[in-house]
């Protein structure tokens, strides 16, 4: 190597310093993380021992996870239907014996999820603009909406459901409101993040033409964030469909309730049938979501 | 007459614009040049009131612009149209809507939220697009246009605002030379035909020389030169831009986007072929 | 003592029960008491659902559990009789169970099952013994098939919400439970101010439902089961504080325990089978 | 007046589409909106959204809210201990569940991303696999693990982890798909193999998004966590539900405030953990877009501009 | 000698490159010009094997490039470095790592997964950065650099690949004129000093004229002109680019980014002052 240029000498110094600090940071974070991990796994019982009875009747102490691994499939196995090739038709009919009821409940569930998502989207959409740092007219509005969104999102759907059942009485109404309110919070955060990542130049373009705050949002932000909004919304819709067990809790029926009944009556094969029904629904929503999003992104012409 | 008096803008510790005073007669085409960070954009943004001045006043035809608020402020913004380097169009909406947005200050709340502009606005927008040869693209999404087309859409939008002043912040910096020529020609034609005052920030000296009646050079937030293009000598240019790291003489041509108009073209032509 | 060598820790499953008091009851003193008395370690899991505890006991993951009567029956079926009941609750008034009732608004003019024909009857929750299984079973046995006799039989989700629904006139009647004339869901809701005194009346009452038992896995050593039975029976005397704490705190109504056997619960097992058949049949 | 009509006619002729959209499009629009409105109205009716009920409910809700202040303060240490222990357990378990889920999801996500796994039948199969994990009710997952590992936090954590695998893989895949192809070309052109390309071109782009997805899901698992209660692992969600079932509103509100506070702590802590990748970063860039980025965007033609900025930047999971 | 023989690439219905044959002696600097869509990028990408040719062969110093696979292919890619219009750097990693990625074909699996390059690679990288005056930025994140700096990082990365051929796909199209000059100068210096073969796609004719030994013009996927810059007359240019909508004569200067080097500079200087 020839004589080092001053720039390289300076670099060597900087590099050594940067390396040292990077090493320190990474060591510190690894240690911290390892501590969190160990603590959490200890609380979570990952290191626990357990006594098990061996097939020969002896009791031994074993690592819990090791002892449990062979039994992992037990519950699943019970949910499998007995299907024979020769009698496939009747076996499947037996398996899905309640399909009429389930279909009805599925529709009910989807409608409830739809309504809840609808309410959640309206609330989240309207509030996401004042809750975005780059759009809020002032700090007070920003903080007020943000706190509100935080509270409604922090309280789980189940808890809102219990509260609303107390307030609005029993029935889908309480469930819809509960899921809707929670969705407002969860979506509001995601929407406002999308808003914050939007290109502010477009907003400036509107502002410079004399547009009011509403115009700036309507023309500067909304067209940019619509694909995000749609994809978040459909994802939320899927989650809300799955949240139907909570609606079941407040007496609105839905597939979740059917799952609970099947569980408590030990109708195991019903569980796998219900799983398939929900699975198909989730796939449908997932596929539609993909399609719609791509269409909106690729839309030429008038936009939104 | 647009009169800017002792206008300053302070960002934290930094005085981006420092006591600028200018009087710009109606119908003049003014080029503002200066190094990056000299305060050119900030000056234009203050005139449009996108940025509020820290000190100083802006007065247009006797109207105190710095005091405007609410709806009057929005009307002022509409009457001094602004064009940006990155066009700042609504990428996802069609060209026509983008142009009609120029009418937004005069559109009611409900109508603007529903995106239902009047037929009159529509006609106006189509006429403006026609003027800039963009009618065929009217229903295309703005984001799918080329840079030069987008900048012309921005100009069309500015036109339908029916402005008395046109502010352009480095309108050609993102464009390739061919489109840059188109856009500068459009600005000049507006200035000449409609008699609009045009203030245009430029990085490229030769463009400023070719198109502007008057050049204002800024340095560190202050006006460092103000006069006819002819009066801008090499020494003055060197003082404005400071020394460059490329060569020890200021090589003006390097910063050029070579919009070869006027006297320069024939010579280049000769070299090229 | 043989079993203590084999079972160095005893795992206890507890359901946070139908009864509001059980929900927030604390079992720590009980745990301490057991550890002192038996000399082995005790782990207590308070679970929110029957299903988890039933699966756990069926998979030999826990040794003992406090069940509701219906969940005991479920565990019995699930394990093919692999659980044995040890003790059940004895209330201060001498009762050993509670009753399903059908509640209506007193001012509704409804006074008997006959009046309810075509009306809306809300069951509490499909998991609930007193809010669903018992009234459904008994009404059917008495000739009022809930599916056809009533206009609609929705689930309200919980006992309180069902009664509240009646109070708000959403439902004509709701199935819930009372322990005795002074203690039960409607009475407690009056105390809490959720409904007005004298606004809710009961028009039907089921046979007594024996309180759920403390049950053990049948494959445990016999002396272990016996030891546990004795230890629990003795809490009221040996550690009154722990007893009061685990039965609902200062307004506990429980007096002690009684020994029970499976026969006491067989009808509930039968009832569940019947319900299952009903469901399949319909 | 006449000039106005003439102008209008000229404009109409020039851009007919500006004045009215094609009939078919209008019909589809009208039909769509009508169906939407009808469905919504029908739902409102079916779910009994009567005004009187709403008013009544809101009045009662006001009552519930009024229990918020003053917040309930537990008197004995024992009670505090129970709540704090619940919070601690919940956080620890949400952490473990999310972390384990993320570890499994991370490699799987590549198999479901279009730009990494071009074999479409395989990719779609993997994606359906994610869907199937999400379609299993969490309680069922919990029961599966209870049979193997008994009551307690372990079963709850694993249940959370498995369903998180389903959600996180999907979201990670999307994040990976949303990365720019350019750095990948750049690295590949230097002779990198497939894994090296992923390591140097895809990962640095996707990782910040992936981390923020993980953090968001961690937070939301902290909030809900009722599943843990069902398996007998305690947790704050269960304690909260118990308080509400017993109509102890002031206590319930205090627990809610404590959860919010905890989520704040996590947020702050994670910000400290990964400052380089923290989400705020993106926001700073938003401010910077006012400045011309010299030469970074060349908007010269439809091809170059069509691709930019149109896809959702970070699509992550509403909890 | 790099020999391309009847190389074609078909995308669906579209023949992007159509039977191109070229023989490029070692150490030549070749400029490839042509309209957008002419197939310039596709040609370069095929030589680097980023895109697989549909037909035809590439042969370098007797090695059949089209037949390469696996590790050999990766080594080939490393030995013909590629520079992109959009730099294609890893924005989130520091400049030094970006440059060291040039060594990736020679780095083992474990080392590259852990991002731990050898000290030797690091020294090489820092020397390359030094050559391009970028050492002070070595620890900065690549995404925070200006366009010209990023392109120079890309060149440094190409250099550490120790290539025998350098392919550059419109390396200056995203750059402002000053940076464009810096980048073209760097390419020329590499060509002259290290004797590397350089193939560079250019939009701007005058840049090609100023810097290249030989110009290849493509049109619709075919080679339309191949010869010394001098031989490229106005008629030929018109044929390559087709007619323009700006003026009826092809105005070559308009597409220029005015890298005024060589003979052009003094004249412009005279005009400017
Ligand atoms: N919003 C802001 N906050 C803080 N500082 C700012 C802000 N806007 C501009 N500045 C600073 O003010 C100074 C002047 O900026 P301005 O954008 O007006 O310069 P310019 O002449 O337009 O430069 P360029 O040619 O790069 O666009 C710069 O130093 C800039 O960093
Ligand atoms: N991956 C691809 N799939 C389909 N078509 C492609 C693909 N890559 C390039 N093309 C098409 O091949 C043709 C040649 O493209 P290429 O990018 O090589 O042109 P170019 O001369 O580099 O143009 P430009 O100057 O715009 O970069 C174009 O019509 C382009 O649309
Ligand atoms: Mg500027
Ligand atoms: Mg190209």
UniProtKB/TrEMBL annotation, chains B, E:
Family: Belongs to the ABC transporter superfamily.
Keywords carried by this UniProt record: ATP-binding, Cell membrane, Hydrolase, Membrane, Nucleotide-binding, Translocase, Transport
UniProt EC number: 3.6.3.27
Name of the featured protein: Phosphate-import ATP-binding protein PhnC
Stretches that traverse the bilayer: none
Domain of life according to the entry: Bacteria
NCBIfam families associated with the record: ABC_phnC
Cellular component, GO annotation: membrane
Cross-referenced Pfam families: ABC_tran
Provenance organism: Roseibium album
One annotated GO molecular function: ABC-type phosphonate transporter activity
UniProt cross-references to CDD domains, sorted A to Z: ABC_PhnC_transporter (cd03256)
All residue ranges annotated as the ABC transporter domain in the record: 2-245
SMART domains membership: AAA (SM00382)
């Amino acid at each position: 190597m020839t004589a080092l240029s001053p720039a390289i000498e300076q670099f060597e110094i900087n590099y050594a310093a940067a390396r040292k600090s990077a090493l320190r940071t990474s060591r510190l974070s690894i240690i911290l993380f390892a501590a969190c991990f160990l603590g959490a796994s200890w609380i979570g019982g990952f290191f626990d021992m357990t006594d098990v009875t061996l097939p020969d009747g002896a009791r031994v102490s074993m690592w819990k996870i090791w002892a449990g691994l062979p039994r992992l499939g037990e519950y699943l196995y019970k949910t499998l239907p007995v299907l024979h090739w020769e009698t496939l038709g009747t076996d499947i009919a037996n398996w899905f014996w309640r399909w009429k009821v389930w279909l009805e409940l599925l529709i009910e569930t989807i409608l409830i999820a739809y309504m809840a998502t609808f309410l959640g989207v309206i609330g989240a959409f309207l509030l996401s603009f004042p809750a975005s740092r780059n759009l809020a007219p002032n700090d007070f509005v920003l903080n007020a909406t943000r706190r509100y969104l935080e509270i409604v999102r922090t309280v789980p759907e189940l808890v809102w459901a219990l509260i609303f059942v107390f307030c609005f009485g029993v029935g889908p109404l309480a469930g819809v409101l509960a899921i809707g309110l929670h969705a407002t919070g969860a979506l509001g955060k995601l929407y406002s993040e999308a808003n914050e990542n939007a290109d502010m130049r477009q907003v400036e373009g509107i502002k410079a033409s004399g547009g009011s705050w509403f115009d700036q949002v309507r023309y500067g932000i909304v067209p940019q964030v619509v694909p995000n909004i749609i994809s978040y919304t459909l994802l939320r819709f899927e989650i809300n469909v799955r949240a139907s067990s909570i609606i079941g809790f407040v007496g609105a029926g839905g597939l979740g309730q059917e799952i609970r009944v099947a569980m408590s009556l030990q109708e195991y094969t019903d569980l796998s049938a219900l799983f398939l029904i929900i699975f198909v629904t989730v796939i449908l929503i997932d596929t539609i979501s993909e399609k719609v999003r791509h269409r909106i992104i690729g839309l030429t012409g008038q936009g939104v | 007459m647009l009169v800017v008096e002792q206008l300053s803008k302070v960002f934290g510790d930094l005085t981006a614009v420092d006591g600028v005073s200018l009087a710009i007669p109606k119908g003049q085409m003014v080029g503002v040049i200066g190094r990056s960070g000299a305060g050119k954009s900030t000056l234009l943004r203050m005139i449009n009131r996108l940025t509020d001045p820290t000190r100083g006043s802006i007065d247009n035809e006797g109207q105190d612009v710095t005091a405007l608020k609410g709806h009057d402020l929005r009307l002022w913004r509409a009457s001094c149209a602004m064009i940006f380097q990155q066009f700042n169009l609504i990428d996802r909406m069609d060209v026509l809507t983008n142009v009609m947005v120029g009418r937004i200050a005069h559109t009611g709340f409900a109508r603007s939220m529903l995106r239902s502009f009047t037929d009159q606005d529509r006609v106006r927008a189509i006429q403006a697009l026609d003027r800039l040869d963009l009618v065929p693209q009217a229903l295309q999404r703005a984001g799918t246009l080329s840079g030069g087309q987008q900048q012309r859409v921005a100009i069309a939008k500015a036109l339908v605002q029916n402005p008395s002043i046109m502010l352009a912040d480095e309108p050609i910096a993102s464009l390739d030379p061919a489109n840059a020529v188109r856009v500068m020609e459009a600005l000049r034609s507006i200035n000449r035909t409609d008699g609009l005052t045009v203030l245009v920030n430029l990085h490229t000296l030769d463009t400023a020389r070719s198109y502007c009646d008057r050049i204002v050079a800024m340095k560190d937030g202050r006006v460092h030169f103000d006069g006819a293009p002819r009066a801008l000598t090499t020494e003055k240019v060197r003082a404005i831009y400071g020394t460059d790291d490329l060569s020890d003489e200021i090589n003006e041509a390097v910063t050029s986007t070579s919009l070869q108009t006027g006297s320069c073209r024939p010579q280049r032509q000769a070299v090229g072929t | 003592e043989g079993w203590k060598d084999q079972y160095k820790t005893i795992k206890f499953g507890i359901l946070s029960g139908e009864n509001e008091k059980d929900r927030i009851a604390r079992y720590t003193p009980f745990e301490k008491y057991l550890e002192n008395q038996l000399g082995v370690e005790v782990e207590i899991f308070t679970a929110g659902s029957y299903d988890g505890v039933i699966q756990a006991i069926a998979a030999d993951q826990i040794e003992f559990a406090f069940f509701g009567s219906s969940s005991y029956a479920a565990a019995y079926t699930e394990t093919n009789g692999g659980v044995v009941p040890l003790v059940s609750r004895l209330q201060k008034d001498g009762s050993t169970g509670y009753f399903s009732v059908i509640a209506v608004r007193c001012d509704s003019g409804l006074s008997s099952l006959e009046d309810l024909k075509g009306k809306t009857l809300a069951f509490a929750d499909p998991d609930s013994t007193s809010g669903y299984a018992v009234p459904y079973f008994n009404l059917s046995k008495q000739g009022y098939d809930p599916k056809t006799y009533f206009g609609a039989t929705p689930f309200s989700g919980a006992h309180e919400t069902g009664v509240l629904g009646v109070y708000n006139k959403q439902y004509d009647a709701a199935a819930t439970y009372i322990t005795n004339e002074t203690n039960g869901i409607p009475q407690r809701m009056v105390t809490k101010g959720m409904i007005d005194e004298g606004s809710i009346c009961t028009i039907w009452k089921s046979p007594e439902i024996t309180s759920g038992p403390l049950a053990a896995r049948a494959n445990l050593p016999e002396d272990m089961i016996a030891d546990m039975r004795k230890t629990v029976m003795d809490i009221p005397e040996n550690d009154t504080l722990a007893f009061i704490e685990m039965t609902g705190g200062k307004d506990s109504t429980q007096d002690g325990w009684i020994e029970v056997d499976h026969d006491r619960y067989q009808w509930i097992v039968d009832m569940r089978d019947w319900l299952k058949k009903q469901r399949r049949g319909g | 007046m006449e000039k106005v009509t003439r102008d209008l006619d000229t404009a109409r002729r020039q851009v007919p589409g500006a004045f009215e959209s094609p009939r078919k499009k209008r019909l589809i629009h009208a039909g769509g909106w009508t169906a939407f409105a009808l469905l919504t109205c029908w739902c409102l009716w079916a779910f009994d959204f009567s005004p009187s009920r709403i008013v009544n409910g809101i009045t009662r809700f006001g009552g519930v809210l009024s229990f918020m202040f003053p917040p309930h303060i537990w008197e004995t240490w024992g009670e505090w201990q129970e709540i704090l222990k619940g919070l601690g357990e919940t956080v620890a378990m949400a952490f473990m569940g999310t972390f384990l889920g993320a570890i499994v999801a991370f490699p799987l996500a590549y198999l479901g991303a279009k730009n990494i796994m071009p074999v479409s039948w395989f990719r779609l199969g993997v994606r359906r696999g994610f869907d199937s994990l999400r379609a299993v009710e969490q309680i069922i997952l919990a029961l599966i693990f209870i049979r193997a590992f008994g009551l307690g936090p372990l079963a709850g954590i694993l249940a959370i982890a498995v369903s998180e695998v389903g959600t996180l893989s999907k979201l990670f895949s999307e994040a990976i798909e949303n990365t720019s192809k350019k750095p990948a070309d750049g690295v590949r052109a230097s002779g990198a193999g497939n894994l090296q390309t992923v390591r140097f071109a895809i990962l640095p782009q996707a990782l910040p998004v992936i981390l923020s997805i993980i953090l968001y899901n961690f937070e939301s698992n902290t909030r809900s966590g009722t599943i843990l209660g069902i398996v007998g692992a305690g947790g704050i969600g269960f304690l909260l539900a118990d308080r509400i079932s017993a109509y102890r509103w002031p206590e319930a509100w205090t627990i809610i405030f404590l959860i919010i506070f905890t989520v704040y702590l996590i947020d702050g802590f994670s910000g400290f953990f990964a400052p380089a990748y923290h989400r705020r970063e993106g926001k700073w860039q938003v401010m910077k877009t006012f400045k011309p980025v010299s030469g970074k965007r060349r908007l010269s033609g439809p091809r170059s501009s069509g691709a930019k900025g149109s896809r959702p930047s970070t699509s992550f999971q509403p909890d």
